[in-house]
Queue: 3 jobs
Job 1
Amino acid sequence: MPYLIELVLFLLPFAAYGLWRRLHPQAEPSTVLLILAAIGAVLMVGGAFWYGVSRSLPPGMTYVPAHLEGSRIEPGHGERLR
């Protein structure tokens, strides 16, 4: 069920654009709208790149996943290679 919701949320903007084109076939998107969409796409890609770079482990480290130690959960972390 969650995959269906994700699929619907992904397809919703495409369906809205298709509906808009169907109702207004002679109209074109305004230049301001296209510029704002391009700025949004650049910000999205830049934010994803920044997040990936800021959350990555430094060279020479390996990720140790979360695991149980006794009765408590040890969170995932990075350790130096041995």
Note: The mean pLDDT is 92.
Job 2
Amino acid sequence: MATFFTTPMIVPYYGTAAFATILGLHGKRSGSLSTSGAIAAAVLGYAALGNPLAVFGVAMLTMYFAGSRATKVKAAHKATLEEYHATEASNGTIKAGGNRDAVQVLANGLFGAACAVAWRVLYSGEFADGKEWTGRLWMGVKGERWCAVDARWGWSKALILGAVAFWGACAGDTFASELGMLSTPPPVLITTLRTVPRGTNGGVSPWGLLVSLLGGLLVGTTTALSLAYENPECAGFSDSRWGLPWWALVVGVGGWSGLVGSLVDSFLGATVQQSLYSSSRLKIVHSRAKKDEDDVVANVPGSGFNLITNNGVNLVSAAGTAAFVVWWASPGL
């Protein structure tokens, strides 16, 4: 039993485990996470951060902090456009964020954390059991290292780009949702191009598409900077398929995923996710409960069917985008 709890797979990074726990507790204390959400955030945070390669944790933290900041931008104004996931204090101020549960946290972290765990098992060298270094491991017994995004080393490149794509897509979707609704021109439904109220699932605008691209580029850029610092063996390395510097590939995948993930999210939101509008409150609402007897809550014309929740749409769009990148970057393709 003592051996079990001291193996690398359980808790090799005690400081990281403490930091991930603090992040979960902070989310709980600030009201942005429920108890289950805080536990899920701590577990997924450790899965991403507990890795000899920091790029996974950097991508996750960039998405988390940038998304949190975007949520707070003009929160009171956004609350007048959509039945916002926020609480109203006694003085009338809006507390941005929401009591996100474990399902919401998993939708925005599970795929990326899985990429981090897979990379750690395959390439960290922590599970070599004292055997001779085979050249496959990033942290070999002789200390040799290779560029982690070099396709010649199997799945390392695919897993890193998959994590960048996943959290880039999450950041792009968050930016589109939180900042895109602040666009001056009203959004149009992606399937019909008809003008719809701000906050409608599936609504897009030029500003919303721009900020989704910027969200993905932010994740890609911070990840590339992190890898350049910790993996100098990548200096001068170019991707064999595209002939691009490795850092341009990482940044490009982040930006592409932010934009494409947001578009996929919008298409799903416009087809398989319900959008309701309240005539009394004059904003998008999340249930058919009426404010008063004169209130009329109805589907936004042309909007989707009530088949998938917002969490499901977020998971499918981000994980689907990232899975495509993993397939595209996988060995032999």
Note: The CA atoms of residues 83 and 285 lie 5 Å apart.
Job 3
Amino acid sequence: MSRTSLMAALLALAAAAPVVHAAKADANDARARDIFAKLISYKTSVGFDQVPAMSEYLASQFRAAGFPDADIHILPVGKTNSMVVRYRGDGSGGKPILLMAHMDVVTAKPEDWERDPFKLIEENGYFYGRGTSDVKDGVATLTSTFLRLKSEGFVPTRDLVIVFSGDEETEMATIRDLANNHRDMIDAEYALNSDGGGGTLEENGKPRMYSVQTAEKTYASFELTTHNPGGHSSQPRADNAIYDLADALKKVQTYRFPTMWNDTTLAAFKAVGAATPGATGEAMRKFAANPRDEAAANVLAGIPYEVGKTRTTCIPTLLRGGHADNALPQSATATVNCRIFPGVAIDDVRKTLQDLAGSSVEVKTIGSPTASDASPLRPDVMTAVTKVVHQLHPGVAVVPSQESGATDGLYLRAAGIPTYGVSGMFLKDSDSFAHGLNERIPVKGYYDGLDHWYLLVKELAGRKS
């Protein structure tokens, strides 16, 4: 099915979708809340080494629900670990589907918060706590979905495989270990990621739009280093490592990577542009109609939260240089962080930086970043997600989106497993506190998310009547 016909089908589905809300199961909701509260209590940020303890707690929940030990795997990597849980199907529906989240969170300093970040607190219609939105709600929801389906005797038409990573916020070593060393455990037709996509709400609480994350940019950092013989600061010379580095960075600053697009970004700009007023909305619509429209691309390039959807971006983030107040610097180094458009080779970006900086500047890639292409707009996934979203939020536009940041999904895409961010959470822009102080989500959003995943799993892996 072409992109045009797919989007037409989704629009038709939006118009025809019945308003059928998932029936609430109070016992399941209560259990899901208890699990959520327990997960928030674990300090799974770097340095506390509590991911293993949280994994053991989750394993106990799966065992108690009837999952055999042979289908529950905890895979250590250093001081953390990943977790893989298989829900056996009858095999009639094809290869497995992965369901993803990560167990770790970013650091939270309790003295800076208004509430204890490691205690789930319900207040004024919100759940507060570190990880409520990024992304222990996903861990709790996926776990609760498996437990609910198991209690109902549900037999999926294909295996469902939970993948919980343990260091998404830092090294991403656990997802790389799974992709490189345990592919047999996670081999699947595609993956559904709770750490991507989701819905947005207007400030009055009305659902605005739902995005399916089908692509994300490659995260890669480079070091630019200048060298100089140095000398005494009382005897300055024309060439100076710090000046030379500054000159190189000015060239990076003025360079604009070529405009790029894919099916995901064009569909997103078309849908979002239709609902966006003013010059920004007009530029989105024009770019979607003709991505070679230079004027439209220039408008979008000037908007920080839109520029990443139109090109690769590189920006200096760290500086170090010199060795003494009274000495000319012998070297100076800048870290340049790039968010690379899907399909662009990492080394091509390094070469561009080298050309800009000049041959006298050393440019090297930091670590071993991984690139991944955009996932195809699968009609089965897009249609199923649209149907479920409209059951819970009738008529909301469902559009593909490209993430300018990075999630574990990039490693699965690189490993050949298409990945789709399909979080069940709807948030206002003003409620987006992931990685920040007083992180929170709407209580209603959490329970709606339980319904979202329950319905989505049954839609994709249940028998059609």
Note: Confidence is low (pLDDT under 50) at residues 1-5, 7-25.
